Amino acid sequence: MIPRLAEVPQVVKDARAFVFDKDGTLLDLDTRWVAFFTALVDAALTELAAPSLRAEILAALGVGPSALVAHGVAAAGTGADVRSVIIETLCASGHDRRASEVAVASAYVSAPMGALAALGHPARTIRVLRECGMRIGVATADDRSRTLADLDGLGLIELVDVVNCGDDSVAKPDPRVLTDMADGWGIDVGSIVMVGDSRHDFATARSAGAPFIFVGDGDGPGGEAWIRSVDEIAEVLGLDSPRQ
Prior knowledge:
This protein is α/β, with parallel strands linked by helices and 244 residues long. The chain folds into two domains: 144 residues, Rossmann fold (3-Layer(aba) Sandwich); 81 residues, no CATH class. It has eleven helices and six strands. The chain has a six-stranded parallel sheet with strand order 3-2-1-4-5-6. Helix 10 links the parallel strand 4 and strand 5. Helix 2 crosses helix 6, helix 3 packs antiparallel against helix 5 and helix 5 runs antiparallel to helix 6. The longest helix has 20 residues. The two termini are 35 Å apart.
C-alpha cells in the first residue's frame, strides 16, 4: 500500500514544482466525462445507423452508466485514442472507414460535456503553492481547447505556468512532458512532483525520474504517497505561508 502523504519522503518535501493531472485530480472525472462519452457514441452511431454497437463500444472505452473504468481508454487515453477505439470497432463490424471517421469526428466536436465540478479547492491549494515559490504545471490527456476552458472555469488559468495536452506533439506518458518543463524552469526533473490518478500519470513520473503522488483511495499504481484530494498537499507539507 502506498503511504499517506504524512509519511512522504524528503524528495517530495524538497519539491520545487508540482505538475497536476486535470481530470480525476483537479476536477471530478465522472461528472465531466460520462455524459460526454455517452453522447459521443450515441451521436456517431445515430449518424451511421448502428445502434446495436452501443454497448460494445462503451465497454471498449471503459464507460459505465455513472462512472468511467479506472485507467481505461476513456479515463486515461487521449481524444485520438478514444476516436480510434470507436472507429476500429465500427470498421470491424463492417462499416466504411471514411464514413466512420467523419461521423466520429463530428460527434467528438458536438457532444456536450458534463458539469464542471472541482475536487476540493484546487485553486486555493495551487495559490498557496505558488506563494511558496512553487512552479505549477498541468499535464492532461484532454485536448488543449477544452483544457484551457476547464482551467478557466476552475479559476486556475492564471495560476498555471505550463500546460501540456493530449493533442500536443509530446503527451503523457512520454517523459518529455516533465523533462521539458524542468528544462524550461531551469530545475532538476527530480524536484518536480507529478500528482495524478492514473497509470499514465504514474508512468509519466517514473519514466522521467520524478516523484509521484496518487490521488484516490490509496489503491493506486504506485508512488511516494497518496492523498484523497489536492487540498491535503499544502497542509501536510507545512506550506501555509511562503517559504523564506
